[in-house]
Write a structure and sequence with these properties.
mainly alpha
Amino acid sequence: MDVSVDQVTGTVDLARTRARGQLLEAGLELFGVYGYAQTSEQALCEVAGVPEEVLWEEFGSREGVLMAIHNRVTTKGLRASEQALLSEGMDDCPLGMRFRRLFDAYVYAVTKDLREARVTFVEVLGVSPAVDEHCKRWKDLWADFLTGEAERAAVRGEVEERDHRVVVMVMVGTVHELMAHHSRRARRARPEEVSQELTTLGLEMMGIASPVE
């Protein structure tokens, strides 16, 4: 029986997708439980059940797996925050409540799996210039997102009209530091506790003295 090119291509694509998924799940388990520095490419491939050549072809190195996991988790957090801001009644909420709902959605999304939180906020630190640049691009994207929200708050008269970009960039960096701190702690704070900290921080940096409890 003749086999079409499309059938062969589809089979290869399916195998590649499966191998990528196995490497990502192995990376999440090993990096998120034992640490990135303690995980060799050989161990990563053994747990994933794929040859090392597949790792090199799909991700280039274990560093590529690390950045792919970071991408996945950070995208999840951003999408959750966007959905929170688009939820019914959000436009009528005061700024403090909008911040709280945004951070509730974000924190829950990125900490539901503690391995994901550790990889995203701890294991990516100090790995290489390439990983640092990767994380910086994500922080810049978050700064754009939150600057837009600050500008909308200024239009509503909730905050002073000024260039909020610098304050927001500092806020984004501080948020990541707080998330890294909580991801390292032996006793993990509840998501609502972390969200309250971030809400208080955000409002104070925006010049609002009375955060919502």
